[in-house]
Amino acid sequence: MQSQSFFPLFLRNNFIAMITKLTSLVNPRIKHIVQLSKSRERKLHDTIVVEGYREIHMALMHGFKLKEFYFCPEITDSSKVDELIASKNIELFEISKAIFEKVAYRENSDGLLALFTPKYLALEEMQLSTNPLILVVESVEKPGNLGALLRTADAGRLDAIVVCDARTDIYNPNVIRSSLGCVFSQQVVTCSNAEAMAFFRARGIRTFAAALPAKKFYHETNLNVSAAIVMGTEADGLTDAWLNGADEQIKIPMGGKVDSLNVSTSAAILVFEALRQRGFRY
Predict the structure, then answer these.
(1) What is the pLDDT of residue 86?
(2) Using one digit for the tens of pLDDT, what is the confidence trace for 62-110?
(3) The predicted structure's pLDDT at residue 257
(4) How far apart are CA 206 and CA 265, in angstroms?
């Protein structure tokens, strides 16, 4: 059985693209997409998978290089395909519903999937404002938590989010999904604790570690300075590296029976207090 065929697609603005129609579940391209679910394969091929109109649109808006584009006409609206890839010189593939269900990472998706080249930013490459506000997360393990933190960074228009000693790939498909594509709109850096601390010290950026042993509440702290708010994991909090190395420790008042909040909730409280102190305007 022939696994692929070729035919033209006419798009608006007189742009014509050639579509390759894939019909086999064992087509090498389909097998490649499935393999990209693994972090080592993404890094080996310098390729990430982005699923969904909103997420693909975010990646395109922020300059990520589109490599291949897949769509399922049984699921998606053809106008979305037209809008996303018009005038782009990329490989375009039509796939069946069965194939899309094999490569899709989530249920009830919209039939669109694309491969992009990732971007990896170094600390020194960050573009910071004169009074930066940065969110630092140490050893984040759950992709959903990292995605939620990225949405907080986007909502607060933070300068950057720094992921120290990461335990999950920032381009994990679940990070992309849970961030609603904000991983593409934010300056995201991965580095070690030591590298981040040295960078902040050298640039006069004060570090505020969120920690239960802290003596000072967050709202009693001056966050209207060049600041990095440092969050740990829900299970273990911050390591001694940050507890001992940060300029200050701060905490959130807890009036209930438990002593912790979800890390993304905690980060949002601290970030928006810093923004309030800065007279943040939308």
Answers:
(1) 74
(2) 999 999 999 999 999 888 888 898 766 777 899 999 999 999 988 878 9
(3) 65
(4) 22
Distances in whole angstroms, Cα of residue 31 to Cα of each of 5, 21, 115, 171:
18, 15, 13, 19
| Distance, CA of 118 to CA of 49 (rounded, Å) | 9
Residue owning tokens 């140490």: 138
Task: Count how many residues are written for the chain.
Answer: 282
Q: What is the DSSP letter of 121?
A: B
- Single-letter amino acid code for the residue at 201: R
Name the H helices within 122-215.
143-155, 173-178, 182-185, 193-202
List the Cα angle 27/28/30 in 5-degree steps. Answer: 70
Alpha carbon distance 6, 150 (integer Å) = 40
Query: Among candidates 114, 111, 107, which has minimal Cα distance to 97?
Result: 111
Residue 236 has pLDDT above 90, yes or no: no
Mean pLDDT, range 54-68, rounded to an integer: 95
